Protein: Putative membrane protein
Organism: Saccharothrix tamanrassetensis
Amino acid sequence: METWRIVATGSFVLGGLIMVLVGMAQARDRRHGTSADVWRAALIGLAVVAVVALLIAYWLPSVAAWGIVAATAIAVAFVTMMD
């Protein structure tokens, strides 16, 4: 496996896990939300992160992979810095 794929996959997984945690927090803060909603958000988020990480690691071309990594980094920066 090429080095850029390992770096891109690791970067995406790091950002993806942060986004999963943000999604879980939003599910918890929702009105009439239960703990099952938080677990559902976690499982769906982790499944999406796992599928996209596998796509980056094995199939996507470099431009698409780095585009996804950049979009994830921008989303993490936006979500964590907003009021």
Remarks:
- The mean pLDDT is 95.
